[in-house]
Write a structure and sequence with these properties.
Layout: E1 5-6, H1 8-19, E2 39-42, E3 45-46, H2 50-66, E4 70-72, E5 81-92, E6 95-105, E7 111-121, H3 134-154
Parallel strand pairs: 2-4, 2-5
Antiparallel strand pairs: 1-3, 5-6, 6-7
Helix pairs in contact: 1-2, 2-3
């Protein structure tokens, strides 16, 4: 299986800009010029094909906003933290399991924290990525956003 780098951040940022009309003036959409300690930039994601990355980006954008996290463009590097992730899928008897690892890095890319987990979808398919449903991707996004929010709040 080969993995390719996917730049998840532009997708997340676009989604957040779209969501910004629904958020109060204290929204968590940033132009990248603030230095909030709750500001995160996502590095290119390794693992999923583009359609899965798009769905995950949508789910994560919603989860991040709901938890008071601010996302900024990765290329601007004006965030308190950079989040670098890897996701893979493993087919099994009971369905398809997505395994994920997110490293939270300092602006100079030193690892500060690691979040990992897994979520299983009861579906199976020849292409394991196609077996992951939206609820599984939302579960990954919610768990990741919860853990990021807890970690950032404790800093």
């Amino acid at each position: 299986m080969t993995f390719r780098n996917l730049n998840l951040l532009p997708i997340l940022f676009f989604i957040l800009l779209s969501l910004s009309a629904c958020v109060s003036t204290g929204s968590n959409v940033s132009s990248g010029f603030g230095d909030s300690t709750r500001t995160l930039a996502f590095a290119p994601l390794n693992g999923p094909p583009q359609p899965v990355a798009d769905q995950l980006a949508q789910a994560f954008a919603t989860a991040a906003v709901n938890r008071g996290l601010t996302l900024t463009p990765y290329r601007r590097r004006r965030s308190a933290y950079v989040v670098k992730g890897f996701i893979t899928v493993v087919p099994g008897k009971n369905g398809t399991t997505a395994v994920y690892v997110w490293d939270v890095l300092s602006p100079d890319l030193q690892r500060l924290h690691r979040i990992s987990g897994q979520s299983t979808d009861k579906q199976r398919a020849d292409d394991p990525w196609s077996a992951l449903g939206l609820e599984t991707l939302r579960s990954i996004a919610d768990d990741t956003a919860d853990q990021l929010a807890i970690w950032v709040a404790a800093r």
